[in-house]
Amino acid sequence: MRRRFRTWRWHLKFYDFLDKEPAIGKLVIVEGTERVLADRALEVVLDRVLPLEVRDLNLSRFTAEALVDVAPVREALNAMPFLAERRVVAVTDTQMMRSAPRKELWDAAQDVPDGNTLVLLDLLSPRAQRPAPFGAMAGRAALRIDTTAGEETRERFVRETLARLGAKADPRVVDELSRSQADLAAVRNDLEKLGLAGKRITIKDLEREALAIEDPKAYKYASALAEGRVAEALAIAHESFSNDPRGAVVPLLSALATECSYLWELARAGGELPSRARWRERFLRPVARRVGERRARIAYERAVRGLEAVVTGRAGSDPEDYRTLVDRITVELSRLARS
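RE: above sequence
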């Protein structure tokens, strides 16, 4: 018999899920359109049900793009937990699946054995019509975590990001970002860049960030790396460090994160760039086709983690630490545009 949830427990906004800590049963559906919150929701689910010491043995992750058929998901779901109370199977980007495999995955979701959990990241609005969202299909038969970000959610996200960075912002900055339509990944990137100076972020700072043209050298570095011209990218990065060792790392990684976020967006079905960057679409779309959604996402996440390492101090404080970090990321992403 399927587990039922009380009304307030089975369909929760993202922060309600964090705060109320509902029971996690057989089926969890992460819906809505904010990928930053969706990725975090998945990690919170894992933290709550799978201790780190047994996670590798009891977690199977799949991306919709990599699934030729649903058989591996069924097999993973029916495996017994090993030295743990349950197994977890996570399938991401299910909104990208075609109708036939999507139906097969939904059929598999109806037969999750007791003691195991299936998590589906189906990044569609709960009110979407085509395809029908898994959350709407499940109703109360799943724990649904809605990542749709209204003004209240956006404000809390902004305040949490500022607190993590140890930065402060004028009330108008918080208000503008809470009301904006930019995705939360872009909001996070802007705050990380603006918070580095250590001073209070003003509305003028925010406006400059939103309207500024990328630093020419950093932009050329990011473009060269995205297009597979690795030697050129490294030469630009090394020149930047020789001219301004401490000031080079953030513009380089910020430009790379932005470039990869554009590629990731264009690699998605129906993806489009924000209006301020739309003029670059004809240059970036061919690269996005070669790179593909999965590699563009991995590249974006790696660039962001590098930027976070600088912001939080994990990357060290010596200019040589920064140079090493950029070199390592450049090499890691050197095959980005290769087939």
